[in-house]
């Protein structure tokens, strides 16, 4: 594995992220303490809130929404993560034994700082922030999620892309021994996503390493995943192993699979329907069955922060 240490790690940051290393210990302790509870639970696989390592030194973010977050259960049992099955309830079951350590991130392409970095070294130079974001899935449901993560813009600046870098591409781990869903060719693996450099250096996107103040559960993309709150959820690539700075627009999984239905930009846009359904309204997961669907907001309500990125771009063509 790895091994390159960024030179600007502050000692205070090393201790503040120490807990981050102890994930397995917490899971084991939790599994023992809550053994009977887990065995009797309907899903039999949820690691309950309070049983993954708590992240320390997390500061609140001005970008957080004031809306109430979804429950930990909603967020960790209703997932899209095809490497662990295509059903919403599959990832919580089939990712349970996934071991997201040791983990390295490979940085490639047009940047000054390329190479293979141990994840803990990769994360350490940056402040951990809680960002409570509205998340909107292309399937017309939504949640409010209290992520913990590091600013993608800070990461990109730190890696020093060259003037040739116009896009940032991301790839998920592609290891069928650890991710059983990869044996089925439902997508052209590995899962891929990408952003323009302007999008990646906007203050909103984060690389999330936690949820509800704790280490990220496997089914949500442990150990590190992308969160881009003004785009449909499929842009939020999970379990990232590669970050590549490219000159050309990178290929992205859903666009490769169904180009007429999923574009590169994937901005939340109530005015542009999916070819098979409307995007005008959304169902908030966890809301009462009697609740009416709520209107979807342009850019998922983050227009003030991001609309300028698309000045002059036809958003119907560039969906
Ligand atoms: N990342 C990978 N590697 N594989 C996937 O199947 N699904 C995407 C995205 N990231 C997916 C992925 C989709 S369609 C959505 S809606 C979000 O993850 C769901 O994230 P969540 O389960 O944490 O809510």
Question: How would you portray this structure in words?
Answer:
The structure is a single chain. This protein has a single domain (17-309), classed as Sulfite Oxidase, Chain A, domain 2 (Alpha-Beta Complex), CATH 3.90.420.10. The protein is globular, with a radius of gyration of 19 Å. Mean pLDDT is 89; it is low at 1-43. The protein has helices at 11-16, 23-33, 35-40, 72-77, 90-94, 119-123, 152-159, 197-200, 253-257, 303-306, and strands at residues 59-60, 104-109, 115-118, 129-136, 141-151, 167-172, 192-196, 206-211, 214-215, 225-227, 240-246, 281-284, 294-295. It has 319 residues and is of the alpha+beta class. The chain has ten helices and 13 strands. Bound molecules: ligand MTE.
């Amino acid at each position: 594995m790895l091994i390159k240490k960024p030179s600007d790690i502050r000692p205070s940051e090393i201790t503040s992220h120490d807990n981050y290393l102890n994930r397995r210990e917490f899971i084991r302790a939790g599994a023992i303490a809550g053994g009977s509870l887990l065995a009797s639970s309907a899903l039999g696989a949820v690691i309950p809130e309070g049983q993954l390592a708590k992240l320390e030194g997390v500061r609140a973010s001005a970008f957080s929404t004031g809306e109430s977050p979804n429950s930990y259960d909603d967020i960790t049992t209703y997932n899209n993560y095809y490497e662990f099955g295509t059903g919403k309830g599959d990832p919580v079951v089939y990712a349970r034994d996934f071991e997201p350590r040791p983990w390295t991130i490979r940085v490639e392409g047009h940047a000054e700082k390329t190479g293979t970095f141990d994840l803990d070294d990769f994360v350490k130079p940056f402040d951990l922030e809680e960002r409570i974001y509205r998340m909107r899935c292309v399937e017309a449901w939504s949640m409010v999620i209290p992520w913990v993560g590091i600013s993608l813009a800070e990461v990109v600046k730190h890696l020093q892309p060259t003037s040739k870098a116009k896009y940032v591409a991301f790839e998920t781990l592609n290891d069928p021994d650890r991710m059983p869903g990869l044996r089925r060719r439902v997508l052209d693996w590995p899962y891929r996503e990408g952003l323009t450099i302007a999008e990646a250096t906007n203050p909103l996107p984060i690389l999330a390493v936690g949820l509800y103040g704790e280490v990220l559960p496997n089914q949500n993309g442990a150990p590190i995943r992308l969160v881009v709150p003004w785009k449909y959820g499929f842009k939020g690539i999970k379990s990232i192993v590669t970050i590549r700075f490219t000159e050309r627009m990178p290929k992205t999984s859903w666009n490769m699979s169904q180009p007429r239905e999923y574009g590169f930009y994937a901005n939340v846009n109530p005015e542009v329907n999916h070819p098979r359904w409307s995007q005008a309204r959304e169902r908030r997961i966890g809301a009462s069955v009697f609740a009416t669907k709520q209107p979807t907001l342009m850019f998922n309500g983050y227009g003030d922060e991001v609309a300028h990125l698309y000045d002059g771009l036809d958003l119907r063509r560039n969906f």
